[in-house]
Amino acid sequence: MGKTYNLEIPLNRVEGDLELKVQIEDNRINDAWISGVMFRDFENILKGRAALDGIVITPRICGICSTGHLYAANKAIEMILDIEIPDNAVRLRNLALMVEMIQGDMRHGFLYFFPQFVNITYSHIPMFSEAVRRYAPLKGEIYIETIKETKKLLEIMGIIGGQWPHTSFMIPGGVSAIPNESDLVQCVYLLKHFKFWYEKRILGCHVERFLEVKNASDLDIWLNENELHQKSDLGFYIRYAKEIGLDSIGKGHCNFISFGGFDHNIIHSGFSFEGDIEEFNHEKISESLAYSWFKDNNRDEHPFQGETRAYATGKESKKYSWAKAPRYKGIPAETGPLSEKIISGNPLFYDLIKHKGPNVFIRELSRLVRVAETIPIMEKYLHEISHSEPFYLSPKNIVDGEGFGLINVARGALGHWVKIKQGKISNYQIITPTSWNASPRDSAGIRGPMEEALIGTQIDNISNLVNIEHVIRSFDPCLVCTVHSLKIRN
Amino acid sequence: MSNSLYWMQCGSCGGDSMSFLNSESPDIIELIETFNINLLWHPSLAYITHEQHTQVVKKIISGEQSLDILCIEGAIIRGPSGTGVYDTSISEPKKDLVIKLANQAKYVLAVGTCASYGGVCSAGGVEGTGLQFHKKNNGGFLGDSFLSKGGYPVINLPGCPCHGEIIVRTIMALISDSKILLTEFNAPINWYGILVHQGCTRNEYHEYQVEDKVFGDKGCLFFHLGCHGPIAYGSCNKLLWNRYGSKTRIGIPCLGCTMPDFPQPYPFFSTRNIEGIPLSLPDGIDRAHYIAYKGIAAATAPKRLKERKTNI
Fold it and tell me: d(Cα B26, Cα A296) in Å, to the nearest integer?
């Protein structure tokens, strides 16, 4: 009989504040609790404000996903106004969201996830010194290049969005500015520059070549095709991740959710349960507060009905997080790039999870290669923007009603639900991607996706918890987003 | 001698850290290398274990490790009822750690409007406040008499977020012992002594009172669409964002996010006015003279502006 340990661990290199508690028995995690430990009361801030103020306030929930919040907030208001926006506005909004996604995928990967590869645990592996050269924090080649290249890509946001983070260029009816011909040429250049770097450094081949990879065996063929592929960061990732066993940890519930994205059916919406994909219906979403620091009415509620009253119980009760527990048909589901690929029917990722389900390796792979699929769409948008068509159609005055904006952003499914009464916000509920992933247990006692993914993880050395870090970071958690949407009743 | 820097996130969205990563000249890697910065901790960038971090904090508090620059991002969350339980680290309220670190630091920087004045975080029920200001009032969390070991009050770098260039240039100024002059709200005059209006590409429209009532056009946004450009202090149109942009350059009114009362309690995107003239006018202006001047200016407006025929 091995020893049982209970550990409390705060985690850095995630967005925001996350702590977890794990129980380890016989060198394996047999239970886990994930806590969001900061909250800022955004819903109370929004309540009673003017109808349009949500598009200023909600991006401030998160400094890394602010464009996503801006987009969702606008969609919710546009649903109330019952308006469609011009194609040019859709193109520019999507372009901006894709820039935010790419910088997020790259910064998450090379600033937060890959530094784990230089953990001392792996110093005996022949590839270790190469990993240090590439990924050492603040010093590794790719670490430094990622800071430079993502910063330069974000110049597109300076041009079309005025600034990043916390851009405001989307308004109900479209976008507020028309980039001129020269601005668009500069965006084309900036995207080409980024693509050149991504192909040379990350893929080791052209985007088009990588997109020919349709299943696990294609991926092997691609890897062994030449030295450029093997030595690229993607090639190195595949080799190193398998060497250190990332393909055997972090399975989780194997349920996926996606709200769809980009308005042109590029990312599908849906819910995947035990391999079957079903049509998405937002009415099937509910939130449980049983294990969250809120008073609950002993029933799970849809965001339009959701009521939350902060209730800090301390450590004595079963409650342990400022995050709520969203469920679809009462079932927990993970969200993120892997979910959107599974639900959109991507053959490579469908094949990869077919036999053994998801794992850390597959989850991070989906983030690394999402860029390859995104860049050609961005090029198409830039090409299609037409100065003879409108960018903004001024809507009629704001009317009362309720609306929602659901969209996939960098970390997965994001939803805003808003009610407008007498021209003011009477209720605002937000469920962020990390709310799904980092959720605590629900009223049935079922663990959230990240908690479940930790179960069974091997911990050989109690003073080195790198496997836990791999599992948690494979979800790219963003806690500043998650612990946001709470309101207090005095 | 290296210069130690500890960056702490409290009630924050992480946007100032993202902005810091966007700094251009120098970028953060160059900043660290050329100014010999020993980055003791940054929640997104540090690569040390929890135990090592605990040791670093202990050493700072005991004085064994010197702390040259303490950067705080996000508001200090004091709720509920002053306990700080809404923002903790391993069950300890972060606010308690802020005091201990601030007392040891040579300089304390409040990075962003939340840390400076409370910002978005002071608007809800979490009892959020700025480090040494609560909105316009001196005091805040540390109290109006607080001076760091280097003899400065908390140096506020407001903005939602703060421009990355302002963060790195302030850090360089402190390390270089360059004197930093502050505004009445303790923000560096070099960045916060000018109006957002200065450098706005819509200035000609503003000059002749050619005002837009709906979005998507080229006119001035001050009279109807709630622009704070002529009344808010910040360098958004001097020091452009991501090398190219600012809100007014893409047709969005300045939201006044560098100001102590951000977010304003009244609606964004509409200008409060008295008989068609904005309620809030630029500092130091005589209302009657302003009305007369604007009347003449509007009458003088060239046709090409009235027809929105210039490029901006």
Answer: 50
3-state SS, residue A115? helix
Predicted local confidence at residue A263, as pLDDT: 62
pLDDT digits (tens, 9 = 90+) for B238-289: 999 999 999 999 999 999 999 999 999 999 999 999 999 999 999 999 999 9
Which amino acid, A186?
Q
**DSSP characters for A194-208?**
HHHHIIIIIISS-HH
Tokens of A312: 């800090």
Q: Find out whether A99 and A155 touch, Cβ atoms under 8 Å.
A: no
Q: If pLDDT is split at 50, 70 and 90, which confidence band does A264 have?
A: low
CB-CB under 8 Å, A162 with B250: yes
pLDDT tens for each residue of B263-273? 999 999 999 99
**Residues in chain B within 8 Å Cβ distance of A151:** 21-22, 24, 27, 242
Q: Identify the CA nearest to A261 among candidates A109, A68, A59, A390.
A: A68
Q: Please determine, looking at this structure, whether the domain spanning A4-482 carries the CATH number 3.40.50.1970.
A: no
Average pLDDT of the segment spanning A355-377? 96
Which of B73, B97, B242 to mutate: most A Cβ within 10 Å? B242
Region(s) of chain B under CATH 4.10.480.10: 194-312
Q: How many CB atoms lie within 10 A of CB B15?
A: 28
Kindly tell me if the per-residue pLDDT of B75 is higher than 50. Answer: yes
pLDDT at A488: 29
How many residue pairs bridge chain A and chain B with CB atoms within 8 Å of each other?
218
Determine what percent of chain A falls in helix, strand and coil, rounding each to the nearest 5. Answer: 45, 20, 35
Q: Region A277-299: what's the mean pLDDT? A: 90
- Greater confidence (B312 vs B106) lies with B106
Whether the ω angle into residue A137 lies within 30 degrees of 0, i.e. cis, is no
- In whole angstroms, give the CA distance from residue A332 to residue A334: 7
- The domain over range B3-190 is classified in CATH as 3.40.50.700: yes
- Alpha-carbon distance of A470 to B152, in angstroms, equals 42
For range A217-231, the mean pLDDT: 98
Peptide bond into B161 cis (omega under 30): yes
Stronger pLDDT, B7 or A314, i.e. the higher one: B7
Closest residue of B to A391, CA-based? B216
H, E, C per residue of B264-280: CCCCCCCCCEECCEECC
> Three-state SS for A455?
coil
Binary contact (B255, A60; C-beta < 8 A): no
Residues 6+ apart with CB under 8 A from A124: none
* In chain A, % of residues over pLDDT 90: 78
CA A382 from centroid of its chain's CA atoms: 24
| Domain ranges in chain B with CATH number 3.40.50.700 | 3-190
Q: Is the pLDDT of residue A484 over 70?
A: no
pLDDT exceeds 80 at position A262: no
Q: Which of A62, A392, A488 sits opposite B13 (nearest CB)?
A: A62
Asked if B214 lies within 8 A of A394 by C-beta distance, the reply is yes
* Range in A110-114, A235-239, B87-91 the model is least confident about: B87-91
- How far are the Cα atoms of A15, A85, A177 from residue A171, in angstroms, in the given order? 27, 10, 10
Question: What is the pTM for the complete model shown?
Answer: 0.96
- Write the CATH number of the domain with boundaries B194-312: 4.10.480.10
Would the CB atoms of B45 and A66 count as touching at under 8 Å? no
Tell the burial category of A402 from Cβ atoms under 10 Å away from its Cβ (0-12, 13-18, 19+): middle
Quick one: pLDDT band at residue A14, thresholds 50, 70, 90?
low
Chain mean pLDDT for chain B: 95
Q: Cα(A209)–Cα(A205) distance, rounded to whole angstroms?
A: 6
Show me where the domains of chain A are located: 4-482
